[in-house]
Design goal:
Elements: E1 4-5, E2 24-30, H1 37-50, E3 53-59, H2 75-87, E4 97-100, E5 104-107, H3 111-123
Parallel strand pairs: 2-3
Antiparallel strand pairs: 1-3, 2-4, 4-5
């Protein structure tokens, strides 16, 4: 499975004993062969640059039949997305799909929607249930 986690590396610099609690986990299902995905990839980069989430990018392989094989895609990533679809009660998958905290999904290009849903999840106790903290060491 190919997943790139950039959010922790991009979190704001803090003192050695300070920790940062991410606002959430954003998993983007994307593909090099998806014409709608570049705006979602840019939205994920914005989230990474903001440093407030754990960001993961999963390239799926179901667009490869179009003749352009995604060099980052894997069947494991596609299987992960289908498992989320089943858990979320959906009959299918799409790109670009962002899964938020493993509980909800939204179009991955909808940056305002992603931030809004993460805020709502945190405010209503449906945010991260597993304690996740990150420390960034200076030096």
């Amino acid at each position: 499975m190919l997943a790139c986690g950039f959010g922790l590396a991009a979190m704001p610099a803090v003192a050695d004993d300070d920790t940062v609690k991410p606002a959430g986990v954003v998993e983007l299902f994307t593909s090099q062969g998806c014409s709608s995905c570049p705006p979602a990839d840019a939205a994920l980069k914005t989230l990474i640059d903001d440093g407030k989430v754990v960001a993961l990018s999963y390239h799926v392989d179901y667009w490869n039949y179009l003749g352009w094989a995604d060099t980052l895609a894997s069947k494991d990533n596609t299987a992960r997305q289908y498992a989320y679809a089943k858990m979320l009660g959906r009959s299918g998958v799409y790109t670009p799909q962002a899964v938020l905290n493993g509980r909800d999904h939204i179009n991955g290009a909808d940056l305002d929607g992603i931030n809004s849903r993460l805020s709502t999840m945190n405010a209503t106790g449906k945010g991260l249930n597993v304690p996740v903290e990150a420390s960034v060491l200076q030096g």
